[in-house]
Amino acid sequence: MTPDVTPLVAGNWKMNGTRASLDQIKAMAEGVKGPLSEKVETLICPPATLLYVATALCDDSPLLIGAQDCHEKASGAHTGDISAEMIADCFGTHVIVGHSERRTDHKESDALVRAKAEIAHANDLVAIICIGETGDERKAGKTLDVLKSQLAASVPDGATAENTVIAYEPVWAIGTGLTPTARDVEEAHAFMRAELSTRFAGEGAKMRILYGGSVKPGNAGELMGVANVDGALIGGASLKSDDFLAIYRAYEALTA
Fold first, then answer.
1. Which residue among 94, 99, 121, 189 is the active-site one?
2. Which of 101, 169, 189, 195 is catalytic?
3. Which pTM value belongs to this model?
4. Which candidate, 21, 210, 232, 253, has a CA 20 to 30 Å from the CA of 39?
5. Does 189 qualify as catalytic in the annotation?
6. pLDDT, tens digit, for every residue of 164-179?
7. CA separation (Å) from 202 to 27, 101, 122, 196?
8. How far apart are CA 212 and CA 196, in angstroms?
9. Per-residue model confidence as pLDDT tens digits over 191-229
10. What is the per-residue pLDDT for 175?
């Protein structure tokens, strides 16, 4: 954790969830109510088809709702895409950009991720910018080189602690059940903090850096307690309210 920085526990549902899944969001919206919500923010990013209904369900809850991606253009002939304005119009507050699955499946470049973050900022959305190394890059000892390059190229110059969150997701750990050691996570997050502080000064020192990659109730306490880890971007474990809330409640001990 970073002193004086409010942690964020965020869930990315990916291409999962139908109307029947809204019961899980209802349970999360109720479950995050209470004193802990004054110390820790929570967010769920469901598929775009559920965005508007999900925000309505969370109207009286501290649970925030965001989107999983946006187009880099404001509007136009981009069939199947969703704009940042549309997300804001559905009362979404955040948008994930640059997730490794987008970078891999859709060949998204750092420059494109940067443009998406910029359009998110222009629509008063918080951009959650994802970065992380592949297994091959890790084996080659290039983890920090990759993080340095992606931070420099993916994060726009207008990034602040309020409009930007960084999510470190080692690609080799996403959905595999594999998790880096706490020491590995600490090294990566310390490096990113130094890079952000050098570029953005005080804003970089306060910018939240989430960890993502096989975060579960069983390892959340250890991972969230690592220096410069300011929350989690959770995949599969965010689909079930019990798992998501268990990860959230790991902060009860960490913030006591």
1. 99
2. 169
3. 0.97
4. 21
5. no
6. 999 999 998 887 878 7
7. 37, 31, 22, 9
8. 18
9. 999 999 999 999 999 999 999 988 999 999 999 999 999
10. 77
